[in-house]
Each structure stands twice: as C-alpha cells, then as structure tokens.
Write a structure and sequence with these properties.
Layout: E1 3-5, H1 15-21, E2 24-30, E3 34-40, E4 44-48, E5 51-59, H2 64-70, E6 73-78, H3 84-92, H4 100-104, E7 108-111, E8 114-117, E9 122-133, H5 141-147, E10 154-167
Antiparallel strand pairs: 1-10, 2-3, 2-6, 4-5, 5-10, 6-9, 7-8, 9-10
Amino acid sequence: MALKQVNPEQLGFNPFEAIGKQWFLLTAGTQQTGWNTMTCSWGAAGVLWNKPSVTCYVRHSRYTLGFMEQQDMFTLSFLGDEHRKALAFCGSHSGRDCDKAAESGLHPVALDGAVTFEEAKLVLVCKKRYAADMDIADIPEDAKTSFYGDNDAHRLYIGEIVACYQQD
C-alpha cells in the first residue's frame, strides 16, 4: 500500500460523488481484537467544532455497530471503480456470516490504530467524537416510508478526521 499522508483540506474531494455515487467502506475495530467493514453510500464531510469531520450512519441491525461502539477509531476507505464488486459484496453480506475480506478479495491492513485496505485510494482515519440514535418519529414521512418500514433506525456517528492518506 503506497499511501502518503495529506492534509484533508488539500483533497480534491467531492463528497456527493465519493460518498453518494462511488461509495466507501466504513471499518471499525482492530486487527488484534476483531473488526468489520460495511459499504456506505450515506454520509457527510465538513467542519464541526473547528475540526475536519465526517458523519456516517449505521443501522442497529448491522454487525459493524458493535465495533463502532467498542472502539474510538474508525476508517472511511474509498476504492476505485475496479473494486465495485467488492463494495457491493461488503454491502450485501454480513461479517457475522462470512469473512468479507477473503470473499471480496480485499486485503486488510492496520493504519493508525484502525483497519483499512491495501486497495484504498483514499483513507480517512477518524476518532469518534459523538454518537446518537436517530429517532424515527422525527424523520420526515417520505423518508420514513422509503427507508424505515422495518423500524431499523440508524445510529449517527461524527468522527474527527485525525489523519488522511492518499495513494501516490
């Protein structure tokens, strides 16, 4: 993995494209104690409390939620189009039931106390700063109908971007 550390302010990062269309892997845990990854297409990047930050969402039913709760660090790993099948696999299979890395062909690596993948083109290493459950009762009706028919709410996580790595 040939990643170099960069300042997040120097990225040519379009969150609408990178998050909403290309997707990313949210990974929590450590290689020593266990970890899981999941594909995400919802999130935000910006500044909160004068720090570069990301917001991501994890449903209560997801295996990754336990790892997010147990650890302070997590990563957002952005892969190229050549890994679209791996992203689709990691978004449609549970780490409870399979080894996502082995079955998707991804190669996990430790980075700054968290886990990412050799294939990542961009990695945001984040420290969890805030977490809260979304209240389905407060969600607009159209979103509630479209996304929460099963009442499986999201937990919102805000992470401070403590390191940013990009492929050379």
